[in-house]
Write a structure and sequence with these properties.
This protein is mainly β. It is about 0% helix and about 45% strand. It contains two helices and 28 strands. The radius of gyration is 19 Å and the shape is globular.
C-alpha cells in the first residue's frame, strides 16, 4: 500500500494506491473522495483543477449534509420550532445539500493508520448549534477503508447530536467508469417507487410507483429514456428512488469495460444524470451528461429526524471490477 499526502490551494490530499491498481485520492474539504482510478482509468469525475473543486456549488465526491437534497422554503421544523436555513438555490428559496455552508464546504480534521491489510482514514468535524441554521451541536465522523488486495472502498457516515435535529448524509460521487458520456452506462436496482418533485423548485412532493422510464429493476441504459419528454422538466434523471426492501440493498452500474456494485443500508438513492453544465472534468471532454451521481439517501418524504444522543450510522460499499471478470 502506497500512501502519500500533499497540500494544494490550502486543502489536504491523501493519496492511496493498493496492490490491485485501485488509486484513490481523498481530501479534507468535505471529507471527500477527490479521485478514483482503477487500472489507470477514471471511475468517478474529478475536476480538472483544484480551484474548481473548491467551489461550494461543486459537490464532486464530497460528503453532503447535514441534509442531502432540497428543503422547501429553507425552513425546518423540529419539535414545533422553526429553524431558518441558509438558502443556496437562486430565487427558489431552497436549502440544497445542507445550505451555503454545508458539510461539503467544511475542512475536516483527519488521521489514518494501517489496521492489518486495511488502510483506515477517519475524518472528524464538530458542527455548532445553528450552523447553517440547523439545530444541535453535532459530531461527525466519516470513515474510509481500503484493503490492500481488493477493489473495494468502504464508507461509514456517523453523527451524534446533543439535541433533536434532522439528518440525511451521503457521499456525492459522480460515476463515469472509464466512459466520457453516461449514455454508455446502465443501472440496475430494486426500486418500485420514486419521489415526484415540484417542476420548478425540485422540492420533493410525494412517492409514486415507477413508470417504464424509471423502472431500473431489470436494468436500464441511460441512453434509452434520458431524452424522453416525461423527463424534460428535470433535464434527465434527477429523482430519489426508494428501495423495495429493507436492509442491505445493491445498485449495479455498468459501463462498456468496468462496473461498480454499490451496497448500503440506506432506504434509497438519488439518481442524477449530470444534466446541468458544470466545471471541466479530467474524465471527459464534455460539460454535462458525462456521468451518473448515485447519492445513497433515505427517502426525501420520510421522517429523517434524529433524536438527541442517538447515533446516526450509515455505510456505503463500492466494489469496482472488469465486466470480463464478472461471473
Amino acid at each position: 500500500m502506497l500512501i502519500n499526502t500533499y497540500q494544494e490551494k490550502g486543502v489536504d490530499f491523501i493519496k492511496v494506491l493498493n496492490n490491485t491498481s485501485l488509486d484513490v485520492t481523498f481530501c479534507n474539504l468535505g471529507a471527500s473522495i477527490y479521485q478514483i482510478k482503477y487500472l489507470g482509468d477514471y471511475m468517478i469525475m474529478s475536476t480538472k483543477n483544484v480551484d474548481d473543486f473548491l467551489k461550494p456549488e461543486v459537490y464532486y465526491g464530497k460528503t453532503i449534509g447535514r441534509v442531502a437534497g432540497r428543503i422547501k422554503d429553507s425552513v425546518l421544523w423540529v419539535d414545533n420550532v422553526p429553524y431558518f436555513l441558509a438558502t443556496n438555490v437562486g430565487q427558489t428559496n431552497v436549502c440544497l445539500h445542507g445550505g451555503m455552508f454545508g458539510l461539503s464546504t467544511c475542512r475536516f480534521n483527519y488521521e489514518y493508520h494501517m489496521e492489518g491489510h486495511n488502510f483506515v482514514l477517519t475524518f472528524t468535524y464538530h458542527s455548532m448549534h445553528l450552523e447553517s441554521g440547523f439545530p444541535g451541536e453535532v459530531d461527525f465522523k466519516i470513515i474510509y477503508v481500503i484493503n490492500e488486495l481488493t477493489n473495494n472502498i468502504h464508507i461509514e457516515l456517523h453523527a451524534v447530536s446533543d439535541r433533536n435535529t434532522i439528518m440525511n448524509l451521503t457521499n456525492h460521487c459522480y460515476f463515469c467508469l472509464g466512459e466520457n458520456t453516461n449514455k454508455n452506462l446502465s443501472l440496475q436496482m430494486d426500486s418500485n417507487r420514486f419521489v415526484e418533485v415540484d417542476s420548478k423548485t425540485f422540492v420533493p412532493l410525494c412517492e409514486k410507483e415507477v413508470d417504464e422510464i424509471r423502472d431500473f429493476r431489470n436494468g436500464l441504459s441511460f441512453d434509452r429514456y434520458i431524452d424522453d419528454q416525461k423527463l424534460a422538466y428535470l433535464g434527465g434523471y434527477d429523482q430519489h428512488f426508494c428501495f423495495s426492501s429493507d436492509g442491505e440493498n445493491v445498485i449495479h452500474l455498468k459501463g462498456k469495460k468496468y462496473f461498480v456494485d454499490i451496497c448500503s443500508n440506506y432506504s434509497g438513492a438519488q439518481i442524477y444524470s449530470d444534466n446541468k453544465i458544470n466545471v471541466p472534468s479530467l474524465s471527459s471532454p464534455y460539460l454535462n451528461r458525462r456521468s451518473v451521481a448515485i447519492e445513497l439517501e433515505d427517502s426525501h418524504v420520510s421522517d429523517r429526524s434524529l433524536k438527541a444522543n442517538v447515533p446516526y450510522s450509515r455505510y456505503i460499499d463500492l466494489c469496482f471490477g472488469l465486466n470480463s471478470n464478472r461471473g
